[in-house]
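Tutorial handout. Part one gives the primary structure; part two gives the three-dimensional structure as tokens.
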Amino acid sequence: MLDFLQSNPSYVYVREASMQVYGTSKYFEQKRYENICSIVREAIQQPVKDNEKNDEILQQFYVTSPEQDISLKGDWVVEFSDYVLDAKYFTGGISFSAKELAKIKRIILNATQVMTIENKTAFYRFEQNDYAVMYLGGYANRYQLQFLKQVYADNKEVHYWHFGDIDAGGFLIHQHLCDATQVKFELFSMGVRELRNPAYRKCLVDLSENDIQRLKGLADVQPYREVVAEMLKRKVKLEQEIICWKISGS
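Part two.
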């Protein structure tokens, strides 16, 4: 793969590169991806910058992941250079390629609340008026961060929320989102009240040793301190899908 990167003359997708080198589309991502990215960074002395992902280095060698999508739901109006996208007419949400980000002139919100949602099931399920919703799918990628920064630049008066799993990963995703955008996203339904709600009792999951160690690293960090203390005391976590299902009236 290192030989391929040095001689690759044109843009290819990650899985196309994997086919060229290994004869199978998933081997590179599953077996060699992070190691190769780290070796390349060390070789060219280009460490990971703040809010940069390790694999972005591959783009310098014309290897790229498939284009990312921006997925929205609710009362968004996105003005592009040659057309306007009004998301409210698409009740199940709408997505557009991150390639279009450079064409965005302005983002208008007719809602007073913006919410980022970690998981796709919750994104589809969530139905509350006055929320403009964006699907993240985990840690926000650079395209999502670019979009959110423009959302905030155009709509500073709006209230910002993040809704994710009540686990260490969910809190770290929220922390990364706030740090990378410099926007204060408040936690939505990710607290002690949800953990104590009898309606969710059968969905509580026992913490693993890895969960416990990760949570201990957040035990003194606001705004997670209270909920992390509850989780460590009871040794449980909770996924967001059941919460979203209940609060959406199901």
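Part three, for discussion. The chain has two domains: 2-64, 69-247. Residues 168 and 213 are 9 Å apart (CA to CA).
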